[in-house]
Amino acid sequence: MKKTNVFSLLFLTLVISLAFTSRASSIKRFLHSADGDDTIVMGSAYVNDVYYSLKKGITATPPRENWDIAFRTFAMSSSILTNGAAGVVLYAYPKSDTSGWVTVDTAGLYAWKPLYNSIKIWENGAFMANAGTFPDYGWGVYNLTTHKLFGDSLFVIKLRNGTFKKIWIVEKDAQNKYYVRYANLDGTKDTTVITNCNLYNTKEFVGYSISDNAVVDREPAKTDWDLLYTKYIEKISMGPGVLVDYPVMGVLTNDKVYVSEVRGVDQQTYDDYTAHSFDSFDISVIGRDWKKSVGQPPVYSIVDTLVYFLSSKSGDIYKLYFKGFEDGTSGDGKVMFNTKLLKLNSIRESGVAANMLIYPNPATSSNVNLVYRFDNLKEFTLDVIDVNGKIIITKHIMNKPGLNTISISDKKMVKGLYIARISTGKNIISSRFIITE
What we know:
7% of the residues lie in helices and 40% in strands.
């Protein structure tokens, strides 16, 4: 009996010890420091995307090839992406408008220009590549009376599984719902789906798999990531005057994450972010050129005199530089890098407030306007603050019912990143804007 008890006690002790060790290991995996070395792994063939928060670390690693198109969830957006790096290719149908839905044919398809997402801003997805001036959004036209976008263009799309479909973005209504029609080229399997973006409005985009006829909710919350390690299509030079759409692995930034690239400095010691302006809306400033390759198959090395200063989603200032890279073709798609928190922002941006809008944003001069509506306020204070926390403008505003517009222009507002902060006595809301020239 005693031997049994001793054995049971030893066994129980071992189980508890293993459980504790496993738990400690699990906890360690999820700990993240804003300062120090870190690593992300996309997997062989870059099978996963990696969403990364400078404050929290990795926040999601969804499969990279489980969607064909994606809708931006913001109610005032018209951006629709394609999963170009997974093999999705979009073509505008040149032979007819939507009246030719039944008779779509693909004769001469490979002479048509393929359409891909912009690598400058998220708002210019592939379906908007042929957009004209307002109210033409490429795939459709905005109606000023109904506040709907009506699709006036047809497309042919090659899906990630290699099949071709014809596709028509029929409408985006005032309730933030997309109506999309797609079918086989011969007209069979004609399908119309409705995607309600309001159900996913905590995310930047919600994916859709045409191959599977299903919504793909894959992203973390829009406030939970600053960087996206992914593959995307970029025009690559293949010789003098020859540019080819080619899938590359790189880093894209979230909306309202601003980057300053600095070359020719010591990565470990150079911290002077104040000497540089955060003046780019380009989501691929970091991109792919922090690494370089030689030979075939390529041997990669890191550009070791290159740092990036980032104003994060929360407005904090970080330094980022890369230390190592393992190719996803022959390795695990591993990226080694270092982050350092340089300035904690005491002014927390509330995100895109439903009752205030800054335009133009980005602005090419100091002529900036604030549009607002605060029905329950008699007065409020407006401050404009630069990236170093200095108040450039202060205005005391007596509120009026309804929609209002005021100028927040000032000669002190030179090229750079700013925060417009409204204080009501009890609450503070704020939004960032950029002056580019």
